[in-house]
Design brief:
- Chain A: Keywords: ATP-binding, Cytoplasm, Glutamine amidotransferase, Hydrolase, Ligase, Nucleotide-binding, Purine biosynthesis.
- Chain A: Pfam families: GATase_5.
- The complex is a heterodimer of chains A (222) and B (81).
- Chain A has 222 residues and is an alpha/beta fold.
- Chain A has helices at residues 14-23, 66-76, 86-93, 150-158, 211-221; strands at 2-7, 27-32, 43-46, 81-84, 100-102, 110-118, 134-141, 145-147, 162-166, 178-182, 188-191.
- Chain A has 5 helices and 11 strands, in the order βαββαβαββββαβββα.
- The longest helix of chain A is centred in the first third of the chain and has 11 residues, at 66-76.
- Chain B has 81 residues and is an alpha+beta fold.
- In chain B, strands 2-1-3 form a 3-stranded antiparallel sheet, with helices on one face.
- Chain B is elongated.
- The model of chain B has no long low-confidence stretch (mean pLDDT 95).
- Classes of the chains: A alpha/beta (222), B alpha+beta (81).
- The interface between A and B is medium-sized, with 20 and 12 residues.
């Protein structure tokens, strides 16, 4: 099970994401934004950070990186893709996921442990969780407010494509407390908080983020 | 030489926290005229000569694909005199 982790200029969380993949039992493979080669990976993670300095819009420039052309093609054929934080922004800019992530409603950059509820466990990245399972993982971003039009929101809700919601007060103004969504097929998932920082109680608030990285193994075994 | 200006604004229904922050800073400085403020982006694209319709169409395309995100933003392209 080879899971590619893409590094763009300005990516921060690629090492933690790679470590989380290995911790979960997979084999992480480093991918570089300028490479037109996915190195035969079975899945791809777009990690968090500030790719291209968040210039123009978060994720707007990364979307056109050479490696993304291959990721978009592979995702459309069903390859599992997880975008975390900046990775989620890249997936929205790439139109692999609907909506957009905008400035937090109170303008603050948030960095804290956040409780979320898993609301869909049928995607490639959430099958290790129980529906309604509550996990605490770090949330750290300045532009994490999920926005989309009413029609898109209604479709996401009716199709069960909201995969996680914030618990408690809305941290950033996201519509319907959305912390993560999937595409219709369930292979592409975007998530604002950071499961890769919560795989080991020694270094994170919990080990509850590990489920995202073990889910992908289940998806491959099936 | 000519300048093509592309202005990008958040759609009216999208929350603009930066605009709101500016709107609430104005009265603190004694500027009481603003009912609300929206903040946007302005791109100035310099080209060699007066743009042809084909060039303007290309800029429109670039505005749609790269300079704006149609999910949350609108854009206007014009030539600055």
């Amino acid at each position: 099970m080879r899971v590619g982790v893409i590094t763009f200029p300005g990516t921060l969380d690629d090492r933690d994401a790679a470590r989380a993949v290995n911790f979960g039992g997979g084999e992480s493979v480093a991918l570089w934004h300028a490479d037109a080669d996915l190195k035969n990976v079975d899945a791809v993670i777009l990690p968090g950070g500030f790719s291209y300095g968040d210039y123009l819009r978060c994720g707007a420039i990364s979307r056109f990186a050479p490696v993304m052309k291959l990721v978009i093609e592979a995702a459309e054929k069903g390859m599992p893709v997880l975008g975390i934080c900046n990775g989620f922004q890249v997936l929205c800019e790439s139109h692999l996921l609907p909506g957009a992530l905008t400035r937090n409603s109170d303008l603050h950059f948030l960095c804290r442990d956040q409780e979320i509820e898993i609301t869909n466990n049928t995607t490639a990245w959430t099958s290790s969780f129980a529906i309604g399972e509550k996990i605490t993982i770090p949330l750290k971003n300045g532009e994490g407010s999920f926005q989309c039009d009413d029609q898109t929101l209604a479709a996401l809700e009716s199709e069960g494509r909201v995969i996680a919601r914030y618990i408690g007060e809305n941290p950033n103004g996201s519509r319907n407390l959305i912390a993560g969504i999937s595409n219709a097929r369930g292979n592409v998932v975007g998530l604002m908080p950071h499961p890769e920082h919560a795989i080991d109680p020694l270094t994170g608030p919990s080990a509850q983020g590990l489920g995202f990285f073990t889910s992908i193994l289940n998806a491959m075994v099936k | 030489m000519a300048t093509i200006v592309v202005e990008v604004m958040l759609k009216p229904e999208i929350l603009d926290p930066q605009g709101n922050a500016v709107a609430s800073a104005l009265p603190r400085l004694g500027f009481t005229f603003a009912q609300s403020v929206r903040q946007g982006k302005r791109f100035e694209i310099i080209i060699e000569a007066e743009p042809t319709p084909e060039q303007l169409a290309e800029v429109e395309k670039a505005a749609e694909v790269l300079l704006s995100n149609p999910v949350i933003e609108t854009y206007v392209v014009r030539v600055e005199k």
